[in-house]
Specification:
- The structure is a single chain.
- This protein has 10 helices and 9 strands.
- It has 307 residues and is an alpha+beta fold.
- The chain folds into 2 domains: 128 residues, no CATH class; 102 residues, no CATH class.
- Strands 3, 4, 5, 6, 7, 8 and 9 form a 7-stranded mixed β-sheet that branches.
- A hairpin with a 4-residue loop joins β7 and β8.
- α1 packs antiparallel against α2 and α4 crosses α8.
- The longest helix has 23 residues.
- The chain is globular.
- The two termini are 33 Å apart.
């Protein structure tokens, strides 16, 4: 670990989402999954897949070799954030491309095992790796921030279904962006960055949480897993702050799970209210997300789309 990186926190023993770079290992993921096996809401196959993918992340050699992207001075970083720009310039990162290509190959293997009926769609990607024409850096860059138009073009060009191209690109990018977040984390002033997109890589949040500290609201990035603070009465998608058009949906008023919805743009953010959560278990957002798919179905019925 270089001196400008921060260690991965042991989230398996955390009761809230700490601000800053936020990681989790496969052991913590497995511990969090334990409480959800054989329940009515969580698929055991999906939970096991979360653990297996996290193990793939751990097999990836250090993907970031350095680059100008991490040479920001405090003044430069402040200027970018003050103007509403995220910190990471993906084009200025020096990547360990061999490590990323090896990781991509393991992702293809994983997808083939998980969905053998559609494994034929990966033939072109495998051939591109074998003949040296695969540009995995470009695929990665399409997720920093996520570019839906680029995904559509990549899927069409490769013959892959879009959900397959999204899965592979997402899990190629995430373990590469997490160490970027660790390197840039100290530049973020959490009292000033109050925007709905990640200050590190510009992506939307995957989930939100209300922490025990006076119900502080935080958002967690869908790609680099960075956690930043956010206003309680504000839509992270459209900026609506009319409390009459902001509400939450829940299957049970006593539940720690809820959906924060906006009537203006009809989007929602899945939220964990740690003030209501049992304190004797491990909490990992990916696992809690998988265990609450019923809330996504509820949102769809009510006419809301996820960020």
């Amino acid at each position: 670990m270089s001196e400008n990186e921060t260690p991965i926190p042991d989230v398996s023993n955390k009761f809230k989402l700490e601000l800053g770079s936020h990681g989790v290992d496969s052991k913590g993921m497995a511990l969090a999954c334990k409480d959800h096996y054989e329940t009515d809401y969580a698929s055991d196959d999906l939970l096991n897949a979360l653990i297996d993918v996290e193990k793939l992340y751990e097999r990836l050699d250090e993907p970031v070799e350095g680059g100008e992207a991490f040479d920001l001075s405090k003044d430069e970083a402040k200027m970018r954030l003050d103007e509403g720009f995220h910190l990471l310039d993906i084009s200025k990162v020096k990547w360990n491309e061999d490590a990323l290509l090896a990781h991509l190959g393991r992702l293809l293997d994983f997808f083939e095992r998980a969905d053998p009926a559609r494994g034929r769609f990966l033939k072109q990607a495998r051939e591109s790796i074998d003949n040296g024409s695969m540009d995995c850096i470009a695929w990665l860059a399409e997720h920093a921030p996520f570019d839906a138009e680029a995904l559509e073009k990549r899927a069409a060009a490769s013959g892959m279904p879009e959900d397959m191209a999204l899965f592979i690109g997402d899990h190629l990018a995430r373990p590469a962006l997490i160490p970027c977040a660790r390197r840039l984390s100290d530049h973020v002033d959490h009292n000033k960055w109050l925007r709905g997109q990640c200050p590190i890589c510009g992506n939307k949040p995957s989930m939100a949480a209300l922490n025990p500290d006076e119900g502080q609201r935080v958002l967690r990035c869908s790609r680099c897993r960075f956690v930043w603070t956010f206003q309680r009465i504000l839509c992270p998608n459209c900026g609506n702050e009319d409390h009459a058009k902001l509400r939450y949906l829940s299957s049970d008023e006593k539940s720690q799970y809820r959906l924060d919805v906006c009537e203006e743009c009809k989007t929602y953010v899945k939220t964990i209210d740690y003030r209501k959560a049992p304190q004797d278990k491990a909490w990992v957002p990916e696992v809690e997300d998988a265990a609450t798919i019923y809330l996504d179905l509820l949102a769809k019925q009510e006419g809301y789309e996820r960020l």
